[in-house]
Amino acid sequence: LPYMPHLPPMALLGKVTATTFALERPRCVFDGHADASDAVWLAVAFANASATFRNPRTRADVPLYKQLPTARSYMTLETAAAAYSCSARSPAVLRVGGDTACRDQGRQDPCNGPLPSPGPYRVKFLLMGCRGPKAETLWSEPILLRRAISPGTIDPASTRRVSDVVVIASILASLGAVLATTVLGALGAKVWGSLCHQDLGTDAFTRRSYRTHHIPPALPQPLPSGCRCSPPGLCCSAPQPPAPCQRI
Predict the structure, then answer these.
(1) pLDDT confidence of 81, banded at 50, 70, 90?
(2) What is the distance between the alpha carbons of residues 116 and 73, in angstroms, rounded to a whole number?
(3) How many CB atoms lie within 10 A of CB 6?
(4) Model-level pTM greater than 0.70?
(5) GO cellular component annotations, sorted alphabetically (predicted)?
């Protein structure tokens, strides 16, 4: 059939990963070739092994996922042919390598397990009936998966730059915290001092005694010359009349 499988043309998250890739679901490709009991398979092979791939004659001859490291190919995604018809309402994308349980359970049935290496891979769709293959598509162009970055290829300078930025940010955050603590402490001390000053002022006002004037004690008045008081002290009481004096 003149159809070549390909990646979806639209932007798609995870279109190609380190272990999986997405394929556009073929529609209307097998109409006129498939019966209700037929199934469509996806053959996956390493790009350099696709030319030697041989279509299985029966379902029992389908190469399994676990044989990929040695056989260099396998078949998966067995689907009823009706799911690829023009009228089928099926997802527009197929995910190759999306079944992570294949490797753990070691199942014998065809499995859609994660791809073990970046590839590249080629794929094709194969229509099979009860008597064997009936139609097939072209092989796809090579599909290369993403590669994990080797630790030796990571630039240490970029890591140091990131570390420097983190250190500077930490220092600035610490300085900001110290400054905020200092300002809050100063404000708190000022408020506390004003409260204490008000309390002390009230107590001092209630306990202090104030003298509005300093009045010195009255000095004794001098006696008139040539006289003596008798009895003594009567001459110093000023509004009383002077005491009789006697001449000496």
Answers:
(1) very high
(2) 12
(3) 13
(4) no
(5) membrane
Structure-block tokens of residue 26: 């073929």
Cβ partners under 8 Å of residue 120, min gap 6: 46, 47, 142, 143, 144, 145
Q: Which residues pair with 75 in a beta bridge?
A: 43
Q: Give Cβ neighbours of residue 138 (< 8 Å, ≥ 6 apart).
A: 1, 2, 3, 4, 5, 124
Q: Is the peptide bond before 120 cis (omega within 30 degrees of 0)?
A: yes
Compute the average pLDDT of residues 7-13.
91
Distance (Å, whole) CA 4 – CA 32 = 18
Alpha helices in 29-92 (DSSP H): 68-71
CA nearest neighbour of 132 among 57, 77, 63: 57
